[in-house]
């Protein structure tokens, strides 16, 4: 396929490189550093070129949008006529300016609401494994990840221990405001299990290079 | 540990059962069906009892909150004095009434905003693997999950194929509104990588019982 890449930072750069190695032709565009863009295309080789966002949008039968959220709506108005009818793949996470949260998305969570109503308790959130996955993995060799977050170190230590006792892997996700990511992530897993037919026994694992 | 379980449905029931098997003592509470609650405690055996939410909150040095969101704030006001200073673990996902979305959380996403600004393009979102994870897993035996969602079947087919070409596993997450879960889930992964020190090369895998 011919793929136009709008936003050739870390994500767009890696995706375009891997696709070019698979035999797709790619056109990198939209870096703040035009020389870097050209070096990237040269390094990738014969299947890669570089150009303006308009050239990339025109070039691609598929267009990848991989720019920071603050720039996304601006650049798509520039290329709108050129992507009509084409598949446009977006991998934009709408981080706010200082990446402390999402600009499009919630600044609330159930865990924080609960904490506000229970200021005297030491709150931690524990989410990310479906109950049925704990059942089967308990007898098996794999264990699902279970994420926990909170402000109180003592509550977090308890959470980590009790996750271990489910034979799940405790992943420290940070402070309680991370519940804003964790609750939608758990909702995603439930949606996959029920709405998308992957089944109630699926689980997530966090994999690392050394695994 | 002594663990009070408030909300003994599927999630609270399984967690309490597994913890009791590990030697913790649990008190199940807050089921619409009191006979079911007692059967659950009997089935689990000597480490389990059942009671009211107040009894469970009093019993536990740790309290698990596992009720539907619509009931959460009501029940915690009933037990507030009893959980003061205790670790309270919440695994409440704030689903709305018909479970079509989150009641506390966003009803917006970058992908939907982009789609609104580009009605003529066939939008799919592709998220869930960090660029550095694609680098290392490409040379390895494990591949990270990459989730895609959208309304347009053609764009989704392209997304799935191009995820395969990254040597990642394409997971069909459904319609474009699932971007409301997917973007925070991707934010969680980035936060783990950078903010929590798990490193830029981590990835998620979807595991199933047959794996």
Short descriptors:
homodimer; 211 residues; alpha/beta; three-stranded mixed β-sheet; 21% strand
Q: How do the strands line up in the largest sheet of chain A? A: 3-2-1-4-5
What is the molecular shape of chain A? elongated
Q: How many strands appear in the DSSP assignment of chain A?
A: 9
Sheet with the most strands, sense and barrel status of chain A: 5 strands, parallel
How helical, in percent, are the residues of chain A?
Answer: 40-55%
SSE order of chain A, as H and E?
Answer: EHEHEHEHEHEHEHEHE
Give the amount of beta strand of chain A, in percent: 15-25%
What is the C-alpha radius of gyration of chain A, as a whole number of Å?
A: 21 Å
Parts with pLDDT < 50 across at least 5 consecutive residues of chain A: none
Tally of separate helices of chain A: 8
Oligomer: homodimer
The chain pair with the largest interface is:
A-B, 108 and 107 residues
What is the end-to-end distance of chain A? 33 Å
Account of the 3D structure:
2 copies of one chain form a homodimer. By secondary structure, chain A is α/β, with parallel strands linked by helices. In chain A, 40% of the residues lie in helices and 21% in strands. The first copy, chain A, is built from 8 helices and 9 strands. Chain A has a 5-stranded parallel beta sheet, with helices on both faces. Chain A is elongated, with a radius of gyration of 21 Å. In chain A, 55% of the residues are buried. The model of chain A has no long low-confidence stretch (mean pLDDT 91). Strand 6 (122-127) of chain A pairs parallel with strand 5 of chain B, so a sheet runs across the interface.
């Amino acid at each position: 396929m011919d793929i136009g890449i709008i936003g050739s930072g870390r994500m767009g750069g890696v995706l375009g490189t891997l696709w070019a190695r698979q035999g797709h032709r790619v056109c990198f565009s939209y870096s703040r550093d035009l020389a870097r863009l050209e070096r990237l295309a040269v390094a990738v080789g014969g299947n890669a070129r570089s150009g303006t966002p308009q050239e990339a949008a025109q070039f691609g039968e598929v267009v990848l949008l991989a720019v920071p959220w603050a720039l996304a709506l601006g650049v798509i108005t520039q290329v709108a006529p050129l992507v009509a009818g084409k598949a446009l793949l977006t991998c934009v996470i709408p981080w706010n300016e200082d990446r402390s949260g999402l600009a499009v998305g919630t600044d609330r969570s159930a865990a924080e609401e609960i904490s506000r109503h229970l200021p005297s308790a030491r709150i931690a959130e524990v989410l990310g494994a479906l109950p049925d996955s704990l059942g089967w993995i308990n007898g098996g060799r794999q264990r699902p990840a279970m994420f926990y977050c909170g402000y109180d170190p003592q509550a977090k230590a308890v959470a980590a221990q009790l996750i271990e006792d489910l034979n799940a892997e405790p992943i420290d996700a940070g402070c309680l405001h991370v519940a804003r990511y964790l609750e939608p992530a758990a909702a995603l897993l439930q949606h996959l299990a029920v709405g998308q037919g992957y089944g109630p026994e699926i689980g997530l694992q966090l994999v690392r290079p050394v695994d």
